[in-house]
Amino acid sequence: LHFDVAFPIHDIEYRWSSSHSVQQTPLCNVNLDKPAADKELTNMTIKFQRNLLQWDINVRRDEGIRVCDVFEAIYSAFDIPLTSHEKSLIPLRLRAGCEEAFRLRCSLAPVPTIVQQRQGWKRIDVLLHETLF
């Protein structure tokens, strides 16, 4: 499964290597609509922490949480612009890496680069280039 948290969930796909190339197949709605756990969950909290930054990723669905709900919650949680306070918590030694991740994300976004640049650093940029699940 290839899920890059920096991009919307419609880009999730299966990837596998064959003898001469990498094969790709989009993740279909049948799989995305499956329950996220063996027993029905209606509330889930995923805790994220890196250095002094920490966020709770809350997933809720009264009818039972599906795989797509978890992916969407993760994507949405990291698609939020950093506050000034959050930026101040990033160690100086990591800021150049965050800037590099920001510029790469902006250049690869499916919208004009300037649109992403105007939003500034997002939580996803704190992950540097470690965005694949």
Question: Which features would summarize this protein structure in a list?
Answer:
alpha+beta; 6 helices; globular; two-stranded antiparallel ribbon; two-stranded antiparallel sheet; 133 residues
Question: How would you describe the overall organization of this protein?
Answer:
This protein is of the alpha+beta class. Helices cover 37% and strands 20% of the residues. The protein is built from 6 helices and 4 strands; from the N terminus they run ββαββααααα. It has a two-stranded antiparallel sheet. A two-stranded antiparallel ribbon has the order 3-4. A hairpin with a 4-residue loop joins strand 1 (13-17) and strand 2. The longest helix is centred in the last third of the chain and has 17 residues, at 92-108.
Reported for the largest beta sheet, the result is: 2 strands, antiparallel
Following the backbone from N to C, one meets helices and strands in this order, namely EEHEEHHHHH
Q: What's the number of helices?
A: 6
Strand arrangement within the widest β-sheet reads: 1-2
Nearest-angstrom radius of gyration? Answer: 16 Å
Low-confidence stretches: none
Helix and strand content put the structural class at alpha+beta
Provide the residue-averaged pLDDT: 92
Strand content bin? 15-25%
Termini separation:
7 Å
Helical proportion?
25-40%
**Count of beta strands:** 4
What best-fitting shape do the alpha-carbon axes yield?
globular
